[in-house]
Design goal:
By secondary structure, the chain is an alpha+beta fold. It is 27% helix and 28% strand. The chain has a domain of 82 residues. Strand 1 and strand 2 form a beta hairpin. Helix 1 packs antiparallel against helix 6 and helix 6 runs antiparallel to helix 7.
C-alpha cells in the first residue's frame, strides 16, 4: 500500500512521488540533485545550460552520461517518424513564441536542420556544425521520470509511483488506476487504465499552448504546430518510450511505430474521435 507522498516542482511542472514508506532526506536530496543536473544540461530556459551554450556557437559539448540512451532513442524516433520527431525542433519553438522569455510572439520560421547535417554524437559528446537549439521535450521528461524511479529502486523501495504531471511510472504489487484526461474538458476523463510495473505518458495540444492554434507539438516539415491529432496516451515498459511515442503518434501511424516498439495507446483527433490498439487494456467511456 502506498502511504507516503512527496510533492515538489521541477522542470516547470508539478511532481508527486508516492511510496510505501517515507523516503529518507538523503534520497530526496539525491533526487533533487539529479533533477538539477538534468535541467542544467537540457533546459532551453536556463542561461547556464549546455543547450543554451549550443545555441550560441558550433562546437563539441560534453553532456552527462544520461545523454547516450536519450539520444539513441531520439534517433530511433527520428528514423521511425521520417524526421518528424527531432531534438532539433527547438529553434522552431522559439520562433513560434515558446522561447526562454515566454514572449509568445511569432516570428518568421526557418527550415529545421536534418540530423546528419548538424549533429554528431560520440558517447556523451555532442558536436554541432553550427549553432542549434536542442529541445528534448518530446521524451526528456519521461526519461527523467525513469531516472528518478531508478534512484528509488536503489534505496530498496519496491512500491512507488512517480508522477510528473502526465508522465508516470509505477512499481509494485498493487495496480495504479489512471484516468485519461479529456483534452477539451480537463475536469472530465474519457477512460481509465490500470498500470502496474509500467509507465503511462500523455500528450495534448491544450498543454503548453498559446495564441491561435499555437502549441508545443511542432511539425518540422510544415513549420507549424501539428493539426489533426489533439491528444495521445501511451503505456509502455519505460516512461522514456511512452513519452516519446506519445509525441510520435501525432505524426506517424501506430502500425508503423508498432513495427519497432511494444506499447498500448489511445489517440483522439480534433473531431473527438478515438482510436486505440488491440493491446489497450483499459476502459473507454
Amino acid at each position: 500500500m502506498l502511504l507516503s507522498k512527496h510533492t515538489f516542482e521541477a522542470l516547470g511542472t508539478q511532481w508527486e512521488i508516492i511510496t510505501d514508506r517515507p523516503m529518507s532526506r538523503t534520497l530526496i536530496d539525491t533526487i533533487n540533485n539529479r533533477i538539477e543536473l538534468f535541467d542544467s544540461a537540457y533546459s532551453r530556459f536556463r542561461s547556464d545550460s549546455i543547450v543554451t551554450q549550443m545555441a550560441k556557437s558550433a562546437g563539441s559539448y560534453v553532456f552527462p552520461d544520461d545523454v547516450m540512451p536519450l539520444m539513441d532513442f531520439y534517433k530511433e524516433l527520428y528514423d521511425a517518424t521520417l524526421g518528424k520527431v527531432t531534438p532539433l525542433i527547438g529553434r522552431s519553438l522559439e520562433l513560434s513564441g515558446y522561447d526562454a522569455n515566454y514572449s509568445f510572439i511569432e516570428r518568421s520560421q526557418v527550415p529545421v536542420p536534418s540530423w546528419g547535417e548538424v549533429l554528431k554524437i560520440e558517447g556523451s559528446v555532442l558536436t554541432t556544425t553550427r549553432p542549434v537549439v536542442l529541445d528534448v521535450g518530446a521524451a526528456g521528461k519521461g526519461y527523467l521520470v525513469d531516472i528518478v524511479g531508478s534512484l528509488i529502486d536503489q534505496q530498496g523501495i519496491s512500491d512507488y509511483v512517480v508522477d510528473a504531471s502526465g508522465d508516470l511510472i509505477h512499481k509494485g504489487s498493487i495496480q495504479n488506476r489512471v484516468g485519461l484526461e479529456h483534452p477539451f474538458q480537463p475536469d472530465t476523463i474519457i477512460g481509465v487504465i490500470d498500470v502496474q510495473n509500467r509507465s503511462i505518458c500523455a500528450s495534448a495540444t491544450n498543454r503548453r499552448s498559446w495564441g491561435e492554434g499555437l502549441h508545443h507539438i511542432f511539425d518540422p516539415d510544415t513549420q507549424a504546430p501539428v493539426k489533426g491529432i489533439v491528444a495521445t496516451w501511451v503505456v509502455a515498459d519505460t516512461a522514456l518510450i511512452a513519452d516519446g511515442l506519445a509525441t510520435a503518434l501525432f505524426f506517424t501511424e501506430p502500425a508503423v511505430l508498432a513495427e519497432q516498439f511494444n506499447f498500448e495507446y489511445v489517440r483522439m483527433n480534433e473531431k473527438g474521435a478515438i482510436d486505440y490498439n488491440h493491446k489497450f487494456s483499459g476502459e473507454l467511456f
